[in-house]
Every structure is written in structure tokens, then in C-alpha cells.
Amino acid sequence: MTLPCFMLLCVKNSNLNANNLTGSLPRDLTNITNLKDLEIQGSGLEGPIPSSISVLTNLTDLRISDLLGEGSKFPYLGNMTKMNYLMLRNCNISGPFPDYILNMGSLKILDLSFNRLTGNLPVPTINNDNLAICLANNLLTGAIPNWITTRPRKSATDISYNNFSETSVPVACRDNLNLFKSSYGGNNSKAVECLRSLPCSKDRYSLHINCGGQEITIGKFSYEADEGYGGEAQYVPLKDNWAVSTTGRFWDVNNTANMFIGKNVSMLRMSNSELYTNARLSPLSLTYYARCLVNGNYTVKLHFAEIVIRDNRSFQSLGRRIFDVYIQDELVLKDFEIKKEAPGVDKVLITPFKAVVKNGTLEIRFRWVGKGTTIAPQKGIYGPLISAIDMEADFKPPKNWKKFIVAGAVVLPLFLIFIIVGTLWWKGCLGGRVLRERDLKGLDLRTGSFTLRQLRAATNNFDSANKIGEGGFGPVYKGELLDGTIIAVKQLSSKSRQGNREFVTEIGMISGLQHPNLVKLYGCCIEGNQLLLVYEYMENNSLAYTLFGSETSSLMLDWATRQKICVGIARGLAFLHEESALRIVHRDIKATNVLLDKDLNAKISDFGLAKLCEEENTHISTRIAGTIGYMAPEYALWGYLTEKADVYSFGVVALEIVSGRSNASYRPKNEAVCLLDWAFILQQKGNLMEIVDPRLESEFNMEEAERMLKVALLCTNASPTIRPTMSAALRMLEGQTSIKEVASDPSIYADGMRFKPIKDHYQQTSHDGSSTSHAPIFSSDNTGIGSSTTSAHDLYPVNPESISFDISETSPLPC
Q1: Radius of gyration of the chain from Cα atoms?
Q2: Beta strands in 571-711 (DSSP E)
Q3: Ramachandran quadrant class, 177 (left: phi over 0; alpha: psi -120 to 50; beta: rest)
Q4: DSSP letters along 40-52, please?
């Protein structure tokens, strides 16, 4: 029903919780200037929150949650100096976090969870250690401030599910501070902060948890204990292979640890009643996070029994517990009510689900969205309830042949062992493998290990039909593991100039780089003379294939996808430059080195050329490695290498994303040599938007396109000192900061002749009738300039060979 506005004109306290109302929030609420308490939770009403709410300066308690429909920016509440309790949860609020909120001295509880707030957390100017803070499930970025991690243990602070930098997350966990998935949000969020000191002791194929109860054994299953922990902001690794995260507080009551454990108040007559004697409760969100699991298909069973709400003639029987359930971030139960589905109280309900484990982890989440009752059976006891969880692999663990091998080794004559060892050593297999394994052992690898037999089976013995590219190490093959995981296998060629030590060094470097916008390294294989790397497989090939390969690619990238891809590349580079443990310069950013997954998320590949860049040694005086059309002038001419070289290359790629054209092969007019040259000309003429891909027609965001073009031109400025850092470029792309428009001066490197040698070359070849549609590139033998065409193998470069040339050669400056 729609709420009649006149009903709210003469009240000082208003509660519109758990109704089936329709329509928008009544704007007449702002006419009740003497209103002190306003609570609207799970009402069915739609947003946005009216900006005129700021006139209610007498409010001491404002609670609005779970609004439907249209979102809004954060309403200004700076005039509400009497505010004690503020909840704006799941209200579709976007935009930067309001700095003044943390300086409202009278505030006792702040809950802004499940919104889309962005930006950094400010440092409050007042000391309010008694303030309970819940900012879970937002898009907050930057470093976690010290005042968050040093707050008193009595003050609950929840910043889980955000995008803070991983390096700022403290290693140790403590009570009343929830850091679960607080860095790099979404499905790729990190959940390792408190588990760094708990490495996986072994591979797991099952997990059974007695939620809220003690350790028990039922039949063949041993259920692990989950008792003694509870709170409004907790992230607790109970063992090396699983953890639990709780978010939210029971309002209007004093929260204690035992409130987060539901206990039955009657005799249970169901079988296996030990599982249902206690249950885990949460007022808002409860997450079980299992790790160390072997990848594959699993069956998940959730055990429910309503042991808190009673079935009698008192008002307590009117209580309703309604919540949602997610498995691997997929909603599997919506508006779920145990008492209704069982049916009845103290009745067992076991719901099975199928789940796929891809990265060794399985996440189960229970969430309250403001529905049901909050005062029955008693005030403050509501939200999700779970009794037990089963996780079982749908496949059997491999048999342990170790004891048979040991027995055979004892029986075999000693001289046979000596013969085998001597033969292996004489052939060089054993010595070489020992050296490689010794090199690997000295590295802190964060990858898995594969056998040659596994990879041969996955690629059909490296069948040429599965070949998807040719990289700097050799051929790249598509494969499928037994659990269904699709992989890309990079095989070290015997002709490769890189030996075992270089191979091991690359693995050590890459294994530490984990980011949603970097191609993930699953592991490696070192067996005999075989050296292989195993990467995640990118379903949608490279950005170049999708953007430029119109004849072979069936995809047409709309503007929203192009914006997402460009921001993703920027985030990946910002991580390499500023957030990873090592300072990494990629050196070969281009459209073919950006791969796209099934959801068209951008991931940077090819770290074969990436080098550790020491601050005191930024000048590379031997050889240059890169690709014509993407190299920064100072790097191509003088070998001066800093992160700004990657910024330049990113600017070229951003220009290609907007225009849908390749900088290396597109020649628009005689007055321009390449796409970048044309962009500079259009900028000077004031017609910059003419470069936008005509295939988009009018279906693009004019403001975002103009912003991306301006960022691209700023990044490709001839002077590296004028180019922004990647983090600054990212903020410009996302509209968080303004863009400094600086006209590039080509004469800074080429005395006004930046493009003249290449332009003269084009004019000469055109005059001779031998011009091609491809921009000139340096030839593979490094002797000069030659033309190049793009082959099918170049379109999926897991680690493509880039062009290398001596800087002593006299060659025209690339676009």
C-alpha cells in the first residue's frame, strides 16, 4: 500500500519498519521539524532519500535501510548536531564518503554499510573512541588509516568488503575489528589478512562445521566446533582452512558475545539433535569462508532449525525470521524463512546446493535485509540463523600410493637403486632438475605445482589444435584440467635465450603479483628438461582481437564495457607501480597484452619483459624492449625507464579504446602519421571528439569519452614530468579529480620534427605505389624499419615476444 502523507504530520517519533508499502519516501516527513526519531527499515519504499531531510535538525535517531529503486548521493546531515544513532544501510547511496560524519561529537553508532561510497577514509578531528562504526560493503579506497587499526578493542569497527590497498591491511586480527575482504572488493577481494601465518597444511576435499556448537562426530562426519566467538565486527580464522566473519549489531540492546549464539529452550526430538542444540546468529551479515579446498564441483548442505522463535499462543509465536543466502556470491535463497519452509519450529530443514571451487575457496554468506520482525520473540534477536554446514567434493581424492612405493623400495636390491640414480645423473636429468628445484625452493612462491603428465593430459599432449599463441618462451596451449578448469600453458622453447635461473626468477616475481586486473599465474611445472607456466585462461582473447579484429571477432564493445576495460588497465598498472611489494615497470603495455575474461574484465599479461626498477638505476644503457607505437620517447631514444613509460603506453591504449582503431596501423589522413598524431591535430583544431569510434554512433557517454581522451593525451605528453602517475590517471578516469589540460610540445625531443622521418617514409612509399595499411615497425633483426602484419598467433599473447632493438641504432621516433 502507499503511505498516506497526512499520517505523519503530527508525530515526534515515526517507525515504518517491515511493511509492504509502495512508492517513494514521503517528502512530507521534512515538514515535521520537531521529529526526533525516524526509523524506516524493510518498508518496501523506494529512494532516493530527499535532500530536504537536512532540515530535521532535532533528530537524535535516524535509521533508514533497504530502500528500493533509485539511488542518491549522500544527503547533507551536517546540521543534525544532536544525532546519536545514524543508520543509512543499503540505500543505494553513491559518491565520496562525507568527511564531517566522523566529527559529529554526539554520534554513538554509525552504520553506512551496503552502499557504494567511494574515496579515502578521513582522519577525524575529534576523538570519539566510543563510536561504533560499520562501513562494510562499500567501495572505499586508499590506505586504511592508522586510527582505524589502533582504536580501542571496546569500539566495534567493520570495514569488510571494500577496496583498500592490500599493503595497508594489518597482518594480525583482533576483537571488534573486521577486515574480511577489505582490499580489492568484489569477487576478487582478498581474504588472507589473518591467514598469512596459517598456510594450508594439506589439500581438503570436505569441511563440516557445527555452527555455534562444539565439536561432535555424527556418523562418518566430524563436525568442527564454532563456539565462543561473537560480535558486531569480527573476523576470526578458527583453523588454517576456514574462518568466519560477522557484521552488524542488534540495535536497542547491549550487545554481548552470547547474543550471537542461538540456544534452544525446549527438548529437541529430531535425530542428530546435537547439531541443532545451538546455532550461529547474526543481526546483519554472517560469512563462512572455507579455504585449502581442491578445485572442482562440491555439494553444500545447509542445516536449519528454528530454535529461538516458539510455536505457542504467546506473542512470541508471531516472530518471523527472514533472510537471504549466497553461495560463491550467487543468491540461492531469497526471503528465506526457516519456520515456513520446515515447516514449524524445532524442525530440521536440510537444503542441498551445488557449488564450483575454482581458486581453492568456498564462501557462504547469510544476510538480513530488514524483513521479518525485530522485537519478537524478544527485542534485538533477529537476522540469519544457521545450525550446521556440510561441504563435500563430488569427486574422490586420489589414492595414496606412497606406502606401496616405500614397500617396493625396501624390497628392491640396493644395487638397482644405485644403477637408476647413476643413470639419471649420467644423463644430466637428475642434476638439472635438482638445480632447478633448489632455485625454486629459495623462493616464496604463492603458486601451485603441476606435473608434466597433468599438463599433457590437459592439452591432449600439446596438440597443435590447442595452440593459441606464440610467446617469448615458446608456444602457448589451451588446456582443461580434470576438475574442468580451463588453463593456458606456456611452454619454454628449447631455443629460448632464457635459462633455468631466469625462468625461476620470473616465477618468483610473478607469483607475488595477485590482482583482479593481472592475469593470474596458477602454477608451474619443472620436470626433466620441461619448463612450463600455467595461467588462467581468458575466454575473450585480447583487447586487440576484440577491438580491431572486426572480421574475426563477433564482439562489439559498447561504451560501458570500454570504460570498464580502460579503468581496469589503469588499476592493474597502478598496482604494479605503487601497491605491489616490488616496484614493477611492465615496459610493453599494448592492446595485445591486455586480455579479456568471460565478463570482459581487463587483465594485463606478459611479464616476461617486466623488470625490477631500482630507484637509483632508472637508465637502461644496453637494449630497449618494447613495441613501436607504444614506447615513450625518452625510453625509445635514450633508454630512460621509469613508470612514466608505462603511463605513456597506457595513454596510447586508452586512445585506441575510444577510437576503436590501432595506433600502429591506422593512418587517417596524409597530414597525420598515426592515431596519436591525428589526436594531437584534432586537439589543436578543437575537434577532439571526431576521433570517437563511429561504430558507437550516439550510444556513448559524451562526458566519459571526453574525459578518457583528455587523460590519454595527458598520459602521452612528450615530457615524462608532465604525465600523471597511474593512480592519478585512475582518479581522473573515474571523475574523482579534474584533468590538467597541457598541450604536448613534440619539439622537446625532435626539434619540431617528431613525425617527419616516418611521414616522409609514408609519402615515399605511397609515391612508389608500395604503401601498406600497416605502420612501420622495427624489423626482427634490429637492422632498420620494415613492415609487419598481424598473425592469428599474435592475437592471444600469453607472453608474446616484443620487439627489441639496440638504442645505438639511428631510427625514427615511434608514435
Answers
A1: 31
A2: 584-585, 594-596, 602-604, 611-612, 623-626
A3: beta
A4: EES---EEPPPGG
Measured between alpha carbons, how far is 95 from 393 in angstroms, rounded to an integer? 42
Spatial CB neighbours of 123, under 8 Å, sequence gap ≥ 6: 145, 147
The Cα–Cα gap between 676 and 678 comes to 5
Cell numbers 563430488 correspond to 394
Please tell me which residue, 32 or 688, carries the higher pLDDT value. 688
Q: Are residues 526 and 580 in the same domain?
A: no
d(CA 743, CA 719): 11
Single-letter amino acid code for the residue at 538: M
Q: What percent of the chain has pLDDT over 70?
A: 71
CA 258 from centre of chain: 34
Q: State the number of CA atoms in the 13 A half-sphere of 602 facing the CB.
A: 30
State how far the alpha carbon of 649 is from the alpha carbons of 347, 356, 579, 675, 776, in Å.
63, 38, 19, 13, 17
Helices (H) and strands (E) in the chain, counts: 16, 43
Beta bridge partners of 542: 595
Confidence grade of residue 503 (pLDDT, cut at 50, 70, 90): low
Cis peptide before 48 (omega within 30 of 0): yes
* 692 & 601 share domain: yes
Whether the CB-CB separation of 421 and 309 falls below 8 Å is answered with no
- Among 313, 365, 370, 302, CA closest to 338: 302
d(CA 787, CA 55): 69
Q: Which residues are catalytic?
A: 588
Altogether, the residues listed in the chain come to a count of 815
Strand 157-158 and strand 206-211: pairing? unpaired
Query: Concatenated DSSP letters for 113-136?
Result: -SSEEEEPPPPPSS--TT-EEE--
- Separation of alpha carbons 86 and 65, rounded Å: 11
b/e string for 623-641 if b means 16 or more Cβ within 10 A? Answer: ebbbbbbbbbbbbbbebbb
Judge whether residue 389 has pLDDT over 70: yes
DSSP-assigned letters across all residues of 706-732: HHHHHHHHHHT-SSTTTSPPHHHHHHH
3-state per-residue secondary structure call for 629-655 = CCCCHHHHHHCECCHHHHHHHHHHHHH
Looking up residue 606, the CATH number of its domain turns out to be: 1.10.510.10
Residue 345: HSE in the Cβ half-sphere, 13 Å Cα cutoff: 19
Amino acid at residue number 620? I
> Is residue 199 a part of any domain in this protein?
no
Q: Are residues 221 and 310 in the same domain?
A: yes
Q: What is the mean pLDDT of residues 388-392?
A: 96
At 640, list the grid cell. 630512460
Amino acid at 404: F
For 320-372, where are the alpha helices, taking DSSP H only?
A: 338-341
User: What number is the average pLDDT over the span 65-73?
Assistant: 87
pLDDT of residue 227: 83
669 HSE (CA, 13 A, CB side): 10
- Look at residue 217 and tell me whether its pLDDT is greater than 90: yes
Q: For the packed helices 559-574 and 643-659, what is the interaxial angle rounded to 10 degrees?
A: 170
Beta-bridge partner residues of 299: 354, 392
Please check whether residue 190 is in contact with residue 183, taking contact to mean a CB–CB distance below 8 angstroms: yes
- Strand-pairing partners, residue 525, are 532
Q: Looking at mean pLDDT, say which of 296-300, 740-744, 805-809 comes out highest.
A: 296-300
Give the number of other CB atoms < 10 A from CB of residue 73. Answer: 13
Question: Which residues of 426-500 form beta strands (DSSP E)?
Answer: 448-449, 467-470, 475-480, 486-491
Give the three cell numbers for residue 181.
575482504
Same domain, 512 and 635: no
Q: What is the CATH number of the domain that holds 233?
A: 2.60.120.430
Residue 656 pLDDT exceeds 80: yes
Domain of 15, in residue numbers: 5-173
DSSP string of 374-428, one letter each residue? SSSSSTT--S-EE-EEEEEESSPPPP--HHHHHHHHHHS-HHHHHHHHHHHHHHT
